[in-house]
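Changelog-adjacent note: as of this version, every example in the card shows the full chain rather than a window. The one below runs 385 residues end to end.
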Amino acid sequence: MHRRIRLVPCIFMILLISIYKLFQEKCNEIGDKGVVEIKRKAAFNLFCQRRFDEWLEIHAEIKTGKRGYDLSMCRSFEKKAINELCCIERHDILLCLTDSQLAAHGLSHPFALKALISDVRPISAFCAGVSEVDGILYVAVSARKKIFLYKWLVDEFIKMHFEMSLAFFPDSVNYMVWCGPIISVAVQNEYYYMTVFPIKEDVVNVKKLFDVGSRTENPVIVGLSDYKQIAYCRDNFLFFQEYYGTVSPISEVKFSDAPLNIVYDAPYLLALLGNGKVEIRSVKPTTHIQTIQLNKAMYISTGLRGTVYVGSSSDVWLLDSRPQMRSNVEKLVNEKQFELAVQLAEKCNEIGDKGVVEIKRKAAFNLFCQRRFDEWLEIHAEIKT
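Full-length structure tokens:
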């Protein structure tokens, strides 16, 4: 049985950014209300779009100051409907899927067009990964039931040799995620994965996992790079798999309902449910932390570490765990929830390395008292005491 951890209320402080009124003031000549939709983020920058008869790209910059944020608008970003955006901060570009082709724009206003993938169409989905070895950006696109691979060099997409063990997928790939060396996709309500890194000339083996379930509206795949794992949602369960296909020692996470989407902000999983709820659970241990009700929430995206953005048709909320982090660590230590306390402490600048070691000492003593001597010795070996 999972035990609910009582934390200092609340673990995520909610800051409502009422951007709808500002959007309307800036765009009142358009006339239509439209929908504010969170796309992707880049550091303090939050990219949103608002649907009108004419498509707009709206860039909201979160900054310090009296108002706390500023807005700028780009009315000529793309002429057709934007299906997906992805920020690649390391290469200072914004990848945009629109009109069945992939474009690369600059990450700064006016978001100038840099390059297009025009030799493969229609593109139904894409994902991107930056190599940890050489820092090169690789982009995979789905078209005609196949996957095509490109690398980004000198502001150009360079097509690469890429051959899969499957000649074709059974249908178009509409959802792709790149995490570590793995590309995971969803096709006809089935999950597949393939190991891409390191890049080789060999045929890439594509393996089928399982179906997305009967209660899941959309497939959901979540990368957990710190654990070197990928998680797949089936109905209201999230199942974990290590990068190279071995069964994960992490227990599956059960949510109260089938999620619309899930993001990972270590050590938390935040699931957006269909009724506007955001359900927050820790990964290890798999414990319910908190549930937040947000009016008609439809979108969720990660920001800087400790921050998550949630959007509705008119508002964007900032969920910020940073102000309460130290208090929550102290609360967890007092309750002897050392595993989660250590994970939080390692991400809290106020605690520092010495504070983390002290928490681990207390954790080791607690294990000794429970006669769990092997684990006690492991911690002391880790902190060299």
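Structural remarks: Residues 352-369 form the longest helix (18 residues).
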